[in-house]
Amino acid sequence: MIKYIEETVNYLHNKGFDQPEVGIILGTGLGQLISEINIIREVSYNHIPNFPTATVEFHKGKLIFGELAGKKVIVMQGRFHLYEGYTLQDVTYPVRIMEKLGIKTLLVSNAAGAINLNFKKGELMLIDDHINLQGGSPLAFKGVEQLGERFTDMSAPYDDALNSKFEALAQANDIKLHKGVYASVVGPQLETRAEYRMLKIIGADAVGMSTVPEIIVANHLNLKVAAVSVLTDECDPDNLEPVNIEDIIASAVQAEPKMIVLFKQLISSL
């Protein structure tokens, strides 16, 4: 993997990806942030050596370098998932690339279903902790110790200082920002009523199919991390309606401007 990482980083250096400070991963339906960026360079994933290719139709598949709120940023417009047939190492490969390019902070977004019924569709949740239900670890491979501490501490995977800033910014902008636990499942099928009940019992406030692998690797690389879920549906097992993916995407798009305000102001404060 070290050789692959070097090849990818050299390619991006030659394309002008020069010392980004902040990495951003945009989740399902969350692409409007791109219009706020002064884009310097952009490269399609399928042109980057050793990079996976996004296969989900609403994930654009571009790596973007530019300026946002006075900082150099590198943005993943579209991410990778286990349900696309990738390994956990594939899914998290871009995090390793962004760290080698120079980022110190990683901001992650996702679309998630609200397990906590006090949380409503269209609201935001700051991730305070997570539950890994994806059946594996992105650190479980031979030679991982050459890239960082094998037994990575996860007692506080989300940076307290960043989370406190997010909460203060939400209050200042009159944006409702819940705080809770995100459970990451494999997917791509959505959950049954019994699974939603289980998730609530084990302490999840929201559920999705991403984020946790990237957070684990970011901690492995000693990056400061924060993540925000855009809540796109309410997962009430006693009143469960069939879910329409187009509705989920529409909900994410509608709620995203609030997330953009928080991301821009947070980046400006770094």
TrEMBL record:
<dbReference type="Pfam" id="PF01048">
    <property type="entry name" value="PNP_UDP_1"/>
</dbReference>
<feature type="domain" description="Nucleoside phosphorylase">
    <location>
        <begin position="22"/>
        <end position="267"/>
    </location>
</feature>
<dbReference type="GO" id="GO:0005737">
    <property type="term" value="C:cytoplasm"/>
</dbReference>
<keyword id="KW-0808">Transferase</keyword>
<dbReference type="GO" id="GO:0004731">
    <property type="term" value="F:purine-nucleoside phosphorylase activity"/>
</dbReference>
<dbReference type="InterPro" id="IPR000845">
    <property type="entry name" value="Nucleoside_phosphorylase_d"/>
</dbReference>
<comment type="function">
    <text>The purine nucleoside phosphorylases catalyze the phosphorolytic breakdown of the N-glycosidic bond in the beta-(deoxy)ribonucleoside molecules, with the formation of the corresponding free purine bases and pentose-1-phosphate.</text>
</comment>
<dbReference type="InterPro" id="IPR011268">
    <property type="entry name" value="Purine_phosphorylase"/>
</dbReference>
<comment type="pathway">
    <text>Purine metabolism; purine nucleoside salvage.</text>
</comment>
<dbReference type="GO" id="GO:0009116">
    <property type="term" value="P:nucleoside metabolic process"/>
</dbReference>
<keyword id="KW-0328">Glycosyltransferase</keyword>
<comment type="similarity">
    <text>Belongs to the PNP/MTAP phosphorylase family.</text>
</comment>
<protein>
    <recommendedName>
        <fullName>Purine nucleoside phosphorylase</fullName>
        <ecNumber>2.4.2.1</ecNumber>
    </recommendedName>
</protein>
<dbReference type="InterPro" id="IPR035994">
    <property type="entry name" value="Nucleoside_phosphorylase_sf"/>
</dbReference>
